[in-house]
Amino acid sequence: FSPRARQVIRDIYQDLSRAAPFDGLLFHDDVTLSDYEDGSSFGIAQNQEWGLPAKITDIRKEDDFLGGWTILKINALDRFAKELADLVEVEQPNLLTARNLYAQVVLNPQSEVWYAQSLDNSLANYDFTAIMAMPYMEQAKDPKAFMQQMIEKVKEHPNAMRKVVFELQTVDWRTNKKIPNAELAETIKSLYDAGVQHVAYYPDDSIE
């Protein structure tokens, strides 16, 4: 919520749009505000402008305040992302946008409060939504069941499959071991068989 920081970010995106041709922007998973942010003077001033208590501890005491605060933060982040995309689109008129979301935002409605992220908002505001469908990162006991649950949750949202990208991990970062190629290929096939239209993965080790 710092005007100076926002202007720096705008300048970066504008410079990027003028420096090279590209087709899309992915607003990654760090576009988030936790249920304890933003406690800066700028964030506190914004909370008061929204009609909320100045102190985050006071906001968290009341469910109505916390719920409303979450929605306001989600909308603020999406508005700023659109502002940045509009800047870039001046130089890149065919621009597509995508929004990265944590898996828990899809699986657990309570997590919207933790991250200020929303699948419904993302589907409405971006061309694509990339969901981090990463069972090992989520420490899922059964990776296949995790993926099936993810598919079922996405399908609950009308036309979501047309816009959702299932983003897979090629490395188990807990152990730094690579996911076997056969397992990755089997996962991708099972996703397509279940009606998923878009699949991505990272990191991509093109040398090996």
Can you describe this structure?
- The protein is built from nine helices and seven strands.
- It has helices at residues 3-19, 41-49, 56-61, 63-91, 103-107, 111-115, 119-125, 143-155, 181-193; strands spanning 24-27, 96-101, 128-132, 164-169, 171-172, 177-178, 198-202.
- The strands form two sheets. A five-stranded parallel β-sheet has the order 1-2-3-4-7. The chain has a two-stranded antiparallel ribbon with strand order 5-6.
- With 208 residues, it is α/β, with parallel strands linked by helices.
Features:
single chain; 208 residues; alpha/beta; five-stranded parallel beta sheet; two-stranded antiparallel sheet; 9 helices; globular
Low-confidence stretches: none
The pLDDT mean sits at 94
Taking the sheet with the most strands, its summary is: 5 strands, parallel
The amount of helix comes to 40-55%
- Computed over alpha carbons, the radius of gyration is 19 Å
**H/E topology pattern:** HEHHHEHHHEHEEEHE
In DSSP terms (H or I, runs of 4 or more residues), the helix count works out at 9
Percent of sequence in beta strands: 5-15%
Give the overall silhouette. Answer: globular
Distance between the termini: 43 Å
Strand order of the largest sheet: 1-2-3-4-7
Structural class: alpha/beta
Strands, total number: 7
